[in-house]
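Hi everyone, sorry if this is the wrong subforum. Our group has a chain we'd like a structural model of before ordering constructs, and none of us has done structure prediction before. Sequence below.
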Amino acid sequence: MGVLELLTVLLILASFFSIVNLRILKLPQTIGLMVLAIALSIFILAIGLVFPSILDSVSYIVKSFDFEILLIDIMLPFLLFAGAISVNVHELLKDKITILLLATFGVLFSTFVVGTGIHWLVEQPIFNLNTLGLSYVDCLLFGALIAPTDPIAVLAMVKKMNLSVITETRIAGESLFNDGIGVVIFLTLFNIKELGIENVTAASVGSLFATEVIGGIALGLLVGFLGLKLVKYIENDHVELEVLITLSLVLLVSIVSKQFHFSGVLGVVVMGLFLNQNIDVDQKKEGVQRAMGDYVYKFWHLLDETLNAILFILIGLEIIPILQNFDSNYLLIALLTIILVVVSRGIGVWTPIKFLSFFKAFEKNTALIITWGGLRGGLSIALALNLPDNIGEGKNLVLFLTYTVVLFTILVQGLTLKKIVK
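Answer:
Right subforum, don't worry. Here is the predicted structure as tokens:
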């Protein structure tokens, strides 16, 4: 199936599922679409028991497109830019220390706690999984890919929660930046895996980490500054030109980041925040103007919603190859992994908030809301699919655990978040 045919099928499914969800299920859009896509996948698997050729054809189509390239190289930059220009950047700058501490400490803590915990569980004879050959670095890779929350899923849910501006900004900002930190940690560990831990020095790891983070942020600031000069020069007179400029800048940051091994995720987020002068009515009275016209924000909101719909349908369809390699031994360890991920996320969020509460005010139960709002999504699955095949059968376990955590956070945490907030 070619790109055009695949895109046509995905858009038709997105339109049909959206109507069904709107009129029948009435769930939040992202959750409803994924539920319907999973239901379709299970239906195809059931049909495949009777007509194996149908299942083989669908499995081939699902495997034929590279989910990792499709999401990380194509969809993610646009989705993150759309998220960055929807955040109240003035509130974010007021609370930048809180957001950066939550994003860095939370991801690092969760990576090592989950990675260490999974390695210990796999080694236990009760699970009969010690033959899979998962090393400690492999388990840390799983910790790194499951630690960052999915800003696409988080932002989609948070917008509908009627939270206070400061709490909403903290959740949105943390999810945008922990994504970039998580990818950098994953790539650093991946490099250690490829080179062999005995050939890696602390200096080389530090250099790689610094290049990814500092390079990504610097590129985002540079392109954002030049982009801001361009859109201000136009002065909102040609909104279609502003859309064209923002589209080209997102692609430029992605391509340059890939070429020089910078973090494209951080670059796109920083550029979006730089371009975004998202202000409220009171600030307008002080003579502050948006750099871009409302048409640009509406365009990116439309693109965000469309790509979101496609992404969550893809997540639902990805269950087909994972269930085909299902092993009942994985169920108990999957349940323990979910508990480990949620608890480590909770501690990773609660600790910096407790420390910062000596210096600034936090609303009651902020840590609980940020913890339970830590939804995982397509990024985790894309990174899991990108793991090297030399992990062996252990890759199937990592994929199954990743998918289980993603399903739990989106379906269980996502559906109960509103009640937790209330």
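For your construct planning: The longest helix spans residues 202-234. The radius of gyration is 21 Å.
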